Amino acid sequence: MIHFRILWMYQPVLFLAFLVLAPWSLGTFAAVYAWLRVADDVVDAPERKQEAVQDYVRGAQAFLETGRRDRDPSGLIAPSRELRDALDRMLLKHRDPYLKQVVSEMLEAIAWDAFRTVRVEEAELNRQCARIGRAYVRGLWYCITGEKAPILAEELGAAATVIHQLRDREEDEALGYVNLPAALGEPDLRRPAVRDWWLHRTDTAIHLLETSMLQGSWRARILIQALCRRYARKGRRLSAALRDLETV
């Protein structure tokens, strides 16, 4: 089914992890992931029209409350309506009140990208990382255990999102998102102030990912800790590349 195909296409490791650790929840997680994945891709489409994207996000938020969608806004760049309608039906089939909250929070993060200005304050960047990381980990943990994630797991999700932002820095800037405090000026990594800001942010995230010890469900812990190790390794490579710029 389409939600399984989308999860496999974008996140084969997560697909296999759920297949091993929580096969009974694979359909639920795939339905949530695929719906949000398509929404995020619509907002981040390279040739998107900002007004159409904003109208689309408003429609997606209304759908979560009513279960119904209006016609697509003019100029929207998106997968076929048939595919999106199928994902809507799948989400409604698998959604419960807690997952509705998770999806709403992640959609709020997607909406932030649709409505944001090019530059924002550091506090807003931190809140966005927390929104994304918290919603992602809450969804993973709940689908595996049926329980709410511990606070530490949510903090680890935010730390992983920091590293994700650095990894996607050039792509985001091409889309018009500069994830750097406006006070730091031009986002050129060769500038010491910019490089040091990213290094501090990344190294702090790596430390949390590498040293934290989760409690709770062993199934959820296996998956979250594996993701932490993966992002910590990615963060170390990115941090090393930043430090190499100091010698150029």
Q: Tags for this entry?
A:
mainly alpha; 11 helices; 248 residues
Largest sheet descriptor: none
Structural class: mainly alpha
Estimated share of beta-strand residues: under 5%
Gyration radius, rounded: 18 Å
List low-pLDDT spans. none
Count of β-strands:
0
Order of helices and strands: HHHHHHHHHHH
Instruction: Give the overall shape.
Output: globular
Q: What is the count of helical runs?
A: 11
Helix content: over 70%
What does this structure look like?
The chain has 248 residues and is mainly alpha-helical. Helices cover 74% and strands 0% of the residues. The protein is built from eleven helices and no strands.
Layout: helices, strands, pairs:
Blueprint lengths: L1 H9 L1 H10 L4 H18 L6 H17 L14 H14 L2 H19 L6 H24 L5 H17 L1 H7 L16 H20 L6 H28 L3
In short:
The chain is mainly alpha-helical. It contains eleven helices and no strands.
